[in-house]
Amino acid sequence: MKNIFIEYPKCTTCKKAKEWLKENNIEFVERNIIEETPNVEELTNWIKNSKQEIKKWFNTSGLKYKELNLKEKLEHMSNKEKIELLASNGMLIKRPLLISDKDILIGFKEDIWKNALQNNME
């Protein structure tokens, strides 16, 4: 499987991450998080395989998150409801995402990406 880079093209962090991937010769397929929002099945698998708590998948600094007052509501929702909510609007999902065979990276932190992708960089 090729790396899937899920981004919101106007996001500066996504642009930075994409540039970093290119500079390090890491192949990827681009996917716009708005035009092709991950569905419930994809999110369910990715969240499970990421070994991250579901809370990490939410774009907590996003306008939509704040508009829906999710900080209050999430603690009363089941994981199934949270995943359905994420799948309903790509702007709720933390980005960028890099989905590979070995790792699922949420948000861009260069040192974490470097460690996770080290084998691809050699």
Describe the overall structure:
This protein is of the alpha+beta class and 122 residues long. It has one domain (4-121): Glutaredoxin, CATH 3.40.30.10. Helices cover 41% and strands 11% of the residues. The chain contains six helices and four strands. Strands 2-1-3-4 form a four-stranded mixed sheet, with helices on both faces. Helix 1 links the parallel strand 1 (4-7) and strand 2 (29-32). The model has no long low-confidence stretch (mean pLDDT 94).
Task: Give me a quick take on this structure.
This protein has six helices and four strands. By secondary structure, it is of the alpha+beta class.
Q: What is the rounded Rg?
A: 14 Å
Architecture (CATH level 2) name: 3-Layer(aba) Sandwich
Helix content: 40-55%
Low-confidence stretches: none
Using the alpha-carbon principal axes, give the shape.
globular
Number of folding domains?
1
Biggest sheet character: 4 strands, mixed
Terminal Cα separation, in Å?
18 Å
Could you please say which CATH topology applies here?
Glutaredoxin
Tell me the β content: 5-15%
Cross-sheet strand order for the largest sheet: 2-1-3-4
Average pLDDT taken over every residue = 94
Strand and helix order: EHEHHHHEEH
Count of DSSP helices? 6
